[in-house]
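I'm stuck. Please check this protein.
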Amino acid sequence: MLRKLTLVASLAFLAACSTVPITGRRQLSLVSDSEINTLAATQYRDVIAKGPLSTNSQQVNMVRTVGQRIQAAVETYFRQQNASDQLAGYQWEFNVIQDDKQQNAWCMPGGKVAVYTGILPITQDENGLAVVMSHEIAHAVAKHGSERMSQGLVQQLGGQALSAALSTNSAATQQIALQAFGVGSQVGLLKYGRNQESEADHLGLIFMAMAGYNPDGAITFWQRMDARENQASPPEFLSTHPSNGTRIADIQRELPEARKYYKPR
């Protein structure tokens, strides 16, 4: 009887799994694409309404130019892989939030992107910005937000379906969503796990290269980020995300593949 229950539980778990586009990693998925995209769009409108949005036209134009080029690259890549259906329901948006203290950017499921002004001194130019935006967009198309949302529903609400969780505990569910999408002031608490970060780095390099940005710029960007981060950060083995040193080493190994996609504009 116990073995039968274990088998049923295992089959249920497998049924709730999906495969990360491109990399093939299996991930927990309790939320449909349409549900997660709808929830993300609602959360995005709330965040953007609170703003404040940047009124600096140069910043806004740069973010939207880089974003639209990466969007086109992502759509081209998925089309070449006969996987355009993975982007069904995407309605891309690119906005700049005026907050010089937040060195952050994120992309919600469905292509909802926000860049905080605080990260622009580190990105320095379009190529540096492409490193960040392609990485965040890679999180979205790899369905990391849905995966983290599913994990949050299991850990905090016992694996409730999204619709039930919203109806019975809307505030908690919306907070899980914001954390799953990497949105919030406590950025350090919201970082993705190692597998997700590595996937986003890998895919991001390809997307930025296809968009006409030099993927080698990822090394110098992360070096600048490393120089700014708190030197008291915990050792890598105590963290859920790669150290900057490990990330840079991994990116260096992946650059030869990314360079094959790079055609300067």
In short: The beta strands are 17-19, 26-28, 93-97, 105-108, 112-116. The two ends are 63 Å apart (CA to CA).
